[in-house]
Design goal:
The chain is α+β, with helices and mostly antiparallel strands. The chain is built from 10 helices and 9 strands. The protein has 2 domains: about 60 residues, no CATH class; about 170 residues, no CATH class. Bound molecules: zinc ion.
Length: about 300
């Protein structure tokens, strides 16, 4: 006979898995099942393994619950994925891979990969262009923050763009890490502005003001404050981020920042993003540049 605590523990875990399966199903198919092959709306549920399979009643295609999500191909338990999503959505000021690895009992590499896959889903969401009155301002990420006397040797140039209301308050923000090719010294070139606006701004429906000079008296202070907040968050939560993956972490910051302004309930929204964004791989994360930005950079170079 099992000790009572062990039985209770199993019961909680099992119901948690069922809750995760149900939450993922709802996030993946909010209007009910839809066959990824033929679009048919009815399926048989096959329950012979840990996660259910859904077999289309028309074409007999078998769809796993995690196919077509960031979890596809992962051997990590669904409960751990949901715990990670919950922590990304709610932890303040955020969670790093070392902390996550201890909390959900996975290796550091697995935790790092889970967080990057979640950022991959977030980055896709951040591609929606901003519009209206749009302001752009240059900024820096590095330690210490934007110091004239003692700039950090590895500080990185950022371009912050935001749609603002009549009071100049930020409605929605985007932040782009500016690569060397868009810089002259530390100043952002016009190609950088072009790359940003092509990627992030609905130019037909926007009035754009830009300020890329670092010491201009007319700097847009709310935008600089957002960049400062991003810088502090990166340094506090992750103890500093190098240039290679900086854009991905900025995407996570921007997602949270805009979520607070829009008062979006983060966890259900994030679950939906993770359930509808296709997988990425460790190799793609390590070797690729952020997929959300690179094709547009290439277009911008041709245009300039
Ligand atoms: Zn089908």
């Amino acid at each position: 006979m099992y000790p009572e605590t062990q039985t209770t523990h199993f019961s909680i875990d099992h119901s948690a898995l069922e809750a995760c399966i149900e939450a993922l199903y709802t996030a993946k198919w909010p209007d009910g099942f839809r066959c990824p092959d033929c679009g048919h709306r009815h399926a048989y549920e096959i329950r012979t393994r840990k996660l259910p399979l859904f077999q289309c009643r028309l074409c007999h295609h078998q769809a796993s619950l995690i196919a077509g999500t960031i979890m596809e191909g992962s051997r990590t338990d669904l409960r751990k994925w949901f715990h990670a999503m919950h922590l990304v959505a709610s932890a303040s000021p955020g969670i790093n891979a070392l902390q996550l690895s201890k909390i959900i009992s996975v290796t550091y590499k697995t935790a790092w990969l889970i967080l990057h896959k979640i950022r991959h889903a977030i980055a896709a969401n951040n591609k929606a262009p901003i519009s209206g009155h749009v302001q752009l301002n240059s900024a820096f990420y590095g330690k210490p923050w934007c110091s004239i006397l003692n700039p950090h040797p590895k500080r990185q140039a950022l371009l912050v763009g935001a749609s603002v209301n009549d009071q100049g308050e930020i409605q929605e923000v985007r932040i782009m890490h500016m690569p060397e090719r868009h810089l002259t010294g530390t100043t952002i070139r016009s190609t950088g502005i072009t790359a940003f606006t092509m990627l992030h701004v609905d130019q037909a429906n926007s009035r754009i003001e830009s300020n890329i000079l670092h010491f201009n008296r007319k700097r847009f202070r709310p935008l600089l404050a957002a960049a400062l907040e991003a810088s502090r968050w990166l340094n506090q939560t992750f103890h500093g981020i190098g240039p290679k993956h900086l854009q991905r972490y900025l995407e996570e910051f921007v997602y949270h920042y805009n979520g607070v302004i829009a008062q979006t309930p983060v966890l259900p929204h994030l679950t939906r993003l993770c359930a509808t964004s296709p997988r990425t791989t460790y190799s793609a994360i390590i070797h690729g540049s952020p997929s959300a930005t690179e094709p547009i950079y290439r277009q911008a170079r041709v245009a300039s």
